[in-house]
């Protein structure tokens, strides 16, 4: 039966309106005034709760097949549904095999089949010498590519040398798909680490870890990438920007007309190095969470629009890999789990700085939809798109508990943080996939998520 989703606060591409979203067979057919709902619709009136477009997380490590004990399609898509995220785009590494050729992509699709509560798509890898796999991966349906200019922290997925990258770039440019780059160079990190090991060498201190991955590692990588972008004219996307010092050159690149987009993550916008306790390896990620002043400059870049989107870089691991007993940042796995709480984390920061809910829609739905080429079906509440919706209470406040996470391991530095905004329900193509109105998440038993 056709449905009408009604609220006084529907977040549409042109602003917030009192409206009814008309759905039939999973697609938004029209958006109209609540008084104009045609006969025959089942009406769901959410009152003053906000209706947001389903969020898209363009940076997730699902790790299946191969490392399902770290995360997996079942658990990642469940956490996503609880967090108002209706589409995940999976990174090509940490799974086995890594998604660097078509056979591996097919293996991933088989592994995901019938396990997903939300939709998902895949990034392919540009890794080592696989330039010949770039075009076939595009034909097989990847939304773009990921590469590393530094060792990715895990055996199997190869970083690219400058030479290997230049061999791949003409192929990438031909596909028209974006290349997502982990922009850190090894040399400044190796130099800083060597110096630290000569002097203090206390790897339980967060300050030691931060000093080991200086801003210059990001800056030097971004300089090289912008030069390559100027030369090969491929769509360059900087993932997880952590240093605000890169903002001026990114602004300049945009002004010059280079096809560059930029992402940051909830943890860089929420935490600050000064507040991270020593030995708290839950806060380890790469690049590292930097200073409070740097965080505020990242917020300015959000305000200015230099940062196009926020993605989680959700990258969990089994508890043992966090090395809680040693508490050493050099030994612990880096990666922060945040799928289920990313929306309230970002909203807490946005609302405190005077932004409205339209900014959530830009950063966490429209922005990633554009990056992944999903605008025809996702990324906005608009006629013709999938009816993916989040019912959101922007004023509710809560302390995050481990029970709120829903990923395979209930480990996250957000546990016990006070956040603003709560997901009340999530809809995928008009079907309610998660209900949180009773204070806990109840999930649909029917797994309707698709590979897209
Ligand atoms: Zn990542």
Characterization of this structure:
With 452 residues, the protein is α/β, with parallel strands linked by helices. The protein has a single domain (69-376, 397-412), classed as Metal-dependent hydrolases (TIM Barrel). It is 29% helix and 22% strand. Strands 1, 2, 3, 4, 5, 15, 16, 17 and 18 form a 9-stranded mixed sheet that branches. Helix 2 links the parallel strand 7 (85-90) and strand 8. The model has no long low-confidence stretch (mean pLDDT 97). The structure holds zinc ion.
SSE blueprint:
Blueprint lengths: L2 E10 L2 E10 L2 E6 L9 E4 L4 E4 L1 E6 L12 H10 L2 E6 L11 H11 L6 E4 L1 E2 L8 H7 L4 E4 L13 H14 L2 E5 L3 H13 L7 H7 L2 H18 L2 E4 L8 H9 L4 E5 L1 H5 L21 H13 L4 E2 L31 H11 L4 H15 L17 E11 L18 E11 L2 E5 L6 E2 L9
Parallel strand pairs: 1-4, 1-5, 6-7, 7-8, 9-10, 10-11, 11-12, 12-13, 13-14
Antiparallel strand pairs: 1-2, 2-3, 5-15, 15-16, 16-17, 17-18
Helix pairs in contact: 11-12
Bound molecules: zinc ion.
The site of zinc ion has 5 residues, from loops.
Explain briefly what this protein structure is.
Helix content is about 30%, strand content about 20%.
